[in-house]
Amino acid sequence: MSVPDFAERLLEARRSGTPASWRDIELPDRTAAYAVQDIVARQLGPVAGWKVGAADPEAEPMGAPCPVIGISSSPSAFDGAEWRMRGVEVEVGLRLGRDLVGAPSRSDCIRAVEALLPVVEVVETRLANWSESPALAKLADFQSHGALILGQPSAIDPATLDLRDVRAELAFDGQTVASTRGGNPASDAWRLLVWLAGHAEARGRPLRAGDVITTGSCTGLLFAAPAARVSAQVLRLGEVVLHF
């Protein structure tokens, strides 16, 4: 099956709610997975952010666009029954105050961020048997991106951000399910942003002022019940609340 065919299968899964089969798909590499993302993104409309992360401080980052239609402000409400996974990740968001183009340096990236904000990413899939699906299929499916809920921008100086010191808490219906310090495996948000700036520009959609970049989970991935109230705290940054 070709890249366009798989992209259409994922789009149909979004339209119908019926999970897409992936067992007859063989994406050769990340380039092919990103090509699928690009086709799907063009159909979903404008992009207002990106997700980026890495498995460890040395691993090559991976990213996906975040369409406007999936971004909202805290507090947000969702129909829990319509979400198959209701995966929740607590993250640190970077809001850009200027465009990032032309191979920016680490210092350029730090200066481009106008605000830090607490973020919750809702993890969702269009794939059947998600837990068994290959990594490249998940990457093609926007790295399992479902929605992004933004807290209020913080007054903290963005240049002081060190993911190794970030403290994050997550509660479902008032019960704490995660409390971490330095839980983001990538460790360095600025390395991620440098990579993403080049990656996004190469894909024809450079990072622009106003974009929100979410930098990977500080709490791992946890799953909420269909009617759960979710409260996330990133200490010193603020709170994000959503209801399923």
UniProtKB/TrEMBL annotation:
Domain Fumarylacetoacetase-like C-terminal: 88-239
Gene Ontology MF terms in the entry: 2-oxopent-4-enoate hydratase activity
GO cellular component, one term: cytoplasm
Domain of life: Bacteria
The entry's keywords: Lyase
Protein name, entry field: Hydratase
Organism of origin: Bradyrhizobium uaiense
